[in-house]
Design goal:
The protein has 150 residues and is α/β, with parallel strands linked by helices. The chain is built from three helices and six strands; from the N terminus they run E-E-H-E-H-E-H-E-E.
């Protein structure tokens, strides 16, 4: 049986700021992110299996990505906890804002690495994460491929 790639796309709104950056993105701002998640595996060949013919049910993949990424990051502001932005984060939290503190600079590149780990950890053993594409704007995106990280 052939390996097949399955892709599901997601959208979420997230704010961030890049501490120490020499451009406009040092300011707090947001993006309408688009995340494409591609997994690879063999379709189920057991004709008695409820998921016969599927690599993974799209709804199962959706549950993983939604709980690990979309529900966490949607309408949140992400700051590197190892910068003075920590003070701003605490102030926003005290006013009821949803803030995520990470131990990396919250660039698309680092976020996609973080997302790859979170998704990979919850995939069934017979399914592998193939790639992620995190689109920050219409013309800018970061991609993660398992083959580049083997």
């Amino acid at each position: 049986m052939s390996n097949i790639r399955i892709t599901k796309q997601f959208s979420f709104e997230t704010g961030h700021a890049l501490y120490g950056y020499d451009g406009k993105c040092r300011n707090v701002h947001g993006h309408s992110y688009k995340l494409s998640v591609t997994v690879i595996g063999k379709p189920i060949i057991d004709s008695d299996h409820v998921k016969f013919g599927m690599v993974i049910d799209f709804s199962d993949l959706k549950k993983i990505v939604k709980t690990q990424i979309v529900d966490q990051f949607d309408h949140a502001t992400v700051f590197n906890k190892n910068t003075p932005h920590l003070e701003l984060a605490e102030e926003l939290k005290s006013r009821g804002h949803h803030v995520i503190l990470v131990d990396y600079q919250p660039t698309s590149e680092n976020m996609v690495i973080d997302f790859a780990q979170k998704i990979s950890d919850l995939l069934p053993a017979h399914i592998k994460l193939h790639s992620l594409k995190l689109q920050e704007t219409e013309t800018s995106f970061a991609e993660w491929y398992a083959s580049d990280n083997a």
